[in-house]
Amino acid sequence: MARSGDRSDLLAAGVEPGPVREQFASEISDDAMWVAAARDGDRAAFGQLYERYARMVHGVLLSKVAVGDVDDLVQDVFLRALRRLSTLRETASFGAWLAAIARNVANDYHRRSLPEEPLTDDASDHEIQSGMSGGDQDGPAAEILEAVMSLSESYRETLILRLVEGMTGPEIAARTGMTHGSVRVNLHRGMEQLRAKLSVSRAVGPEQEKS
Amino acid sequence: MDTGNNRTENRPSTQSGDYLWDRSGEPDPEIQRLESLLRKFRHDSPTPAFPEIVRELRWPFFRWRIRLFPALATAAVGVVAIVAVTFLVYRTKPTPTTLAGWDLTNVQGTPRIGRKTLSAKEGTIRLGIGQILETDSQSRASLQADDTGKIEVGPSTRLRLLSMGSGLKRIALDRGTIHTYIWAPAGQFVVDTPSAVTVDLGCAYTLQVDDSGAGMVRTSLGWVGFKLNGHESFIPAGAACATRPKVGPGTPYFEDASAEFRSALARFDFEDTTSQQSAHDVSIVLSEARNRDALTLWHLLARVNDEQRVLVYNRLSQFVPPPATVTKEGILRLDQPMLDLWWNELGFDDISVWRHWERSWRGVSTSAREK
Questions:
Q1: Which of A150, B77, B182, B319 could be disulfide-bonded to B149 (CB atoms 3.0-4.6 Å)?
Q2: Is the ipTM of this complex over 0.85?
Q3: pTM of the complete model
């Protein structure tokens, strides 16, 4: 029986139909045009970039910092991008560049919060616990988000973009600059791990209630 | 392997994979459930107003030269090239982006912009659009914008800079206390609070907002407009006005009015739920009113019921007779031009100032909870 995370299965399915790729190819050309216009002082063009990329930035940050701080940091990311727009060499790579800024802002956030604890790529217990601080801490949604936050970084970022921000796999790839194959692997393996965690918590929950 | 008790373990990968990947194929109920529950955390903030972008200097010739540097270096002219590059890089540094905003100075403690704290040694830094200034219980700060005015930020305060346009400077006070001295033209400085919007009309005033979103404005110079959902109050120097979430501004009053007057007015504005209660409190306000409390009575005209309005009209007429062009019938049906003409007789200021600026910022969206 093929497992949903098998590499051959994933890579085989990684080829997108033409119209989807064409759609995102045209968006990349829009990005280049808006970046050029924003560099020339056109704030409306930068607003268009915000409209297109705000969900991606929000999702990347949500996978790394407390819910209550995400909205402020989204603004920080775009302001930082605005200041550094002149340093972007490949305008078609705006999404990947912006995602990198978002990850750096999240890292700065943790450095300021925990100056003596180096960050690792894997989720630490502290990060998982802090994920909900300052936000809605009750209910099944918070429990599910906490389960997502307990996954490894690449899985939780991709899953949050898909399940929280409502982006499709091709859209995640286009916005973050990741390859379709990477996004697909992260989605499948992350989802598999999330299902396992949720089924364990469903099984443990009633037993705890009984005891 | 299908265990029979976990419906997720044996899901065909093609079905769940397609839906997980691009929502094509048969929907996966569990993924749909997760999407539905998690969407509450989704990004939903509107596009903020970004600061002005200063056009960078562009030297296409220089960029062309940069691409040739490796070849030039291998051609043994490296030293010359490096000197040229050093010179040109120095000359073509992009002009830094200019951030519109307020200059922030630490007065006491450790005010913060976002997560950055401002120590007393750091002098002045810029609070930009979209940024958040917070002070703890031991901190105070000062904001100044040369073309707008000065704001003293008290302890335990959180404010956000919303816009800094040439015609409208807007901040949001989420909680805490600010003392403002505004020299921008009347109507250009606006503060959103959780329960009302204050519009500066050439003045100095203190605005407080508590954790529940309730607010209080005290005007020390000029006057302030306080507004929510068309419910508006004009607060001249020496007067105060409270505001409450979902209710909006109460009725302005002079703080030297009697305690009975102020208590009855507060109950009328925010507590009374029956016509009997409000009639009782209006009767106290009318009996306790002095000449200068015409300010309060004028505002009450539009807030009481028809029966009470006759009583308020009669009492206000005793203090400040209406001008000849204003009729009792007109006031009782709340004719706005007549109300405005009578206001102008009270001696505070010409209400056309307010009407002009009210029209000018009426179309501007507000972050106050105008729901």
A1: B182
A2: no
A3: 0.48
